[in-house]
Structure formats: C-alpha cells, structure tokens
Request: fold
Amino acid sequence: MKQYLPLKPHKWGYKLFVLCGVKGYAYNFEIYTGNENNSLERQQMLEPDLGATGNVVVRLSRVIPRNEHHKLYFDNYYTSIPVMVYLEKLGKHTVGTFRRNRFPDIALMPEKEMLKKPRGTYDECLTVVDGVPITTVSWKDNKIVNVTSTYIGALEPTKVRRYDKKQKKNVDVEIPKIIEVYNKHMGGVDLMDSLIGRYRIIMRSKKWYIKIFYHLLDMTVVNSWLMYKKITGNTMPLAKFREHLSVTLMQSGIAKRGKGRPSGSFEIQENIKKKRTQTPSAPFNEIRRDCLEHWPNYEQQRRVCKMPKCKFQSFTKCSKCCVYLCYNNDRNCFVDFHCS
Reply:
C-alpha cells in the first residue's frame, strides 16, 4: 500500500483520494490499495468503467445528490471526456484542467503558436459529445493553462493583476471566466492537508494501519472544527478547539476519586497551613451536562459557589467538575449548575 510520490514533500506514504469542499471539509475519501476497491459494487450500480482515475471520481461523487446542479472541480489527473459526460448526465457539472493528449481532436490554437502571443491571450472551443456540450479554453499566463467545463465558458472575462518583468510593474491581464471560477473554487484538498499538518498527531508506530488511523482522526477533528464554526459562528482557533476536545474526551465519563482514607482528626486539620489557591475554572459544557457520576462531596473548607450570580459559600464540591456548589434546603445550585 505504501507509495512513492516524487512530487510530494514526503516521498513515501499512503495515498488517499479525498472529496473536499471549498473550505476544506472532507465529504468522502478512499484509500488507494493498488487496484479498484470494489469493482463488484460498480457493476451492481450499473456504472461504466471510466478508467482508474475516472472510477475514483465517480465513486467519491456518489454522496453528491443527482440533478441538483452541484459542481465538481478537479485537476488534470482526473479530467477526461467520458467522466465529464457521465457526471453531466447525472446532473453534476464539472470544471477541470486537462492535458492536451487526452483531448487530441480539440480545435484549439497549438501551444507553440500561443506562446508567441501576448500574455492574456485565450482561445475557446465548444464541442458536443453524446449530447453534452463541453467547452475547452486555453489561456496564456506564465505558461499555457488548459481548462474544460460542462457548464461555463470564457465569456465575460475579467482582469487579474500580474507582474510584468519587462515593465517591472504590476499590470492588468485578461482572464477567462472559466479559469477565474476554477481558481476560486479549487484547492479544498490542499486546504484540508494544511489544516491537518498544523497540529498533526505525532506518535511513532511500526504498524501501518496506526498511521492511517491517526490521519483519519486528524481529518475528523478538522471536519468537526469546520462544522462547529459554521453552526455556532464562533471563530475559535483550531489549536484551542483541539485542546477543548481533548480535555472534554479525557474527562467525559470519568469521576475523580481521592486516594487513601480521609482523616477525621480535628487536631491534624487545625495544624495544616492555609494556602492561597486559585479558584478552579468551570468545566466544559459537554462534561458539565453529561449527567454521569456527578456526586456532592462534603469538604472541610468552604468556597464561593460556582453558580453564576450566586455569592454564597458552600462546603459541597462536585466530585467530577471539582467546583463548589450550594446544596441545602434554601439553595440547590448543584442541580441547577448541571442542568442549565
């Protein structure tokens, strides 16, 4: 399963195919094993054989609803005419860069001739394959960029800033609409890899499946963080979110129990020097409200109640949250704190 990837920063590793959104959220993934993972499933779903890379795109895009005009963006490793035609018939639009040798009969300006043209020159060609219109565009930037799509073309071109070495200043260069859209939406997988690499789990193991497990765990944490920000609108940094998550998982379902037998001698307690201690912080809401092993313990010293807006002192301390709460006939902050 281990692959040699000469174009990657880490030359040896395990290859994963991932379907990501614009913000880096991973919707689906597949681990490369050297051959098609489940050819029988493809045959049962009546999917055509579109080649190794084409079948990967089809399998990953199964989670995308049909005929809802979702758009897929991929690079030239996956782009081919059969893939684009098949996905378009399912109501899934596509945009991708392509290699000229995969589009041999396309009527575009030859690359050698386009290289002689000024920067910003582009050529467009529209073809119809099996009833599906496909637009191909070649654009000259620092090098020739070839992009194809089943739903957008080069019309309504805009301007983009580029540095001109001859004039030694930034100039406006015309860019086709299809390439502008591709640059805007492509890069979700790279963003996800960047987020995972910031705080990756670093634990050495000789077992290959442990490394994959850690990577999938990192991917799950990044997905959770992106979903948390979208739902709550909270811009919590990823590092703080991982810390919050790890503390919550470590404390969830576990009650802290004191070691040894508590002393009942009043004289010994009188001789203990009083030390100034910091007020314990409130636990996370996931621990506070899990309704598991929160026991009221009686302490020798009383502290200020942790319940908001309560200024009384109490001898009762939660065994799990490690905070003092009122627990008497007049006030029951212990129950309110764990239920609110």
Notes: Residues 264-275 have pLDDT under 50 and may be disordered. The first helix runs from residue 39 to 44.
